[in-house]
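The pair is set out directly below:
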Amino acid sequence: MKKMKIGFVGVGDISGIYLENLTHRFKEVEIVGVCDLVREKAERAVGKYGIPKLYEDMYELFADEEVDIVLNITRPDEHYEVTKAALLAGKNVYSEKPLASTLEKGKELVALAKERGLTLGGAPDTFLGSAIQTAREMIDRGDVGQIVGAAGYMKCRGHESWHPDPEFYYKRGGGPMLDMGPYYVTAFVNLFGSVKWVTSMSRITYPERTITSEPKAGQVIKVDVPTHVSGIMEFESGAIGTLTMSFDVFPAGSCDFIEVYGSEGSMIVPDPNNCGGKIRIRGKGDWEERDLTFDYGWNCRGVGLCDMANAIRDGRTPRANCGLTYHALEVMLALANAEGRREHVRIESRYERTAPMCRGLEEGILD
């Protein structure tokens, strides 16, 4: 079987786990080359992982007929430009989250991929890991009864104390909703289905942030996006979910990552930024831990890309498809911006859940 060949645009912080998994764990794809604006980063990746090609720029990568899929791991506000250029060059694209920084740009990319007959997918793919897949199966078979509601929480004090280059987290395309929200919203719609309405309130608690991490310690960041967002979502099913995303607070430790409330019981779902973890469930009795019944409980980033490669080969819809990434983008932007409108916002897009992951296959081989 011919392996699908991947070209990396961007070799930043998140690229390491992709490089590791795609070279050592997933067996149906092959990295053919990389490029980065900082050439030294690309050179290190080539040397460490034995990658055949180092491109001068993304346009040289796009022109390479060997490349089947472009993996876009640039900064969030650059996703649109890179993905559009790749699609115009005739390449399938898998992008890191979010799909784009505005809904208009996201809609344009989805339309362009459809017009060109190309496949567009993207992160996050952690919902394909064992925890969310197991939770979905439990919910679908009624382990906690009819879903009444759910809640998600991501709370931290920001990135300027540890990230080497944290400014983009506070600019367009960043903020807690577009940075961490993709994990939560993607998990929610895969557990409960499409979102129909949202409303929220948001704020910028600290208009300026001082970097304390090296090498940019002392530099001041002007904050341009909401950094504390509390929102409510109504799903098509009638369930009601709440979501709190913050770069402004210290974690209190009193809330789990995702809580699911059913008519017959409640469930704790672990951090959707991870692939594994512990699921707990209770009805009238005490909390019980449930075994994870799906594969990929480790940091399996790249599994969505590999699933997309197989989907292209087999003529099916990828699980981490642009219908999902666009719906998540619309929900997140509505939650981040609804406060200014002081109204309920109708979500126009709809997402049809794809088939759950297959079990029992050799690690690194997907259906």
Notes: The CA atoms of residues 229 and 351 lie 23 Å apart. The two ends are 13 Å apart (CA to CA). The chain is about 30% helix and 25% strand.
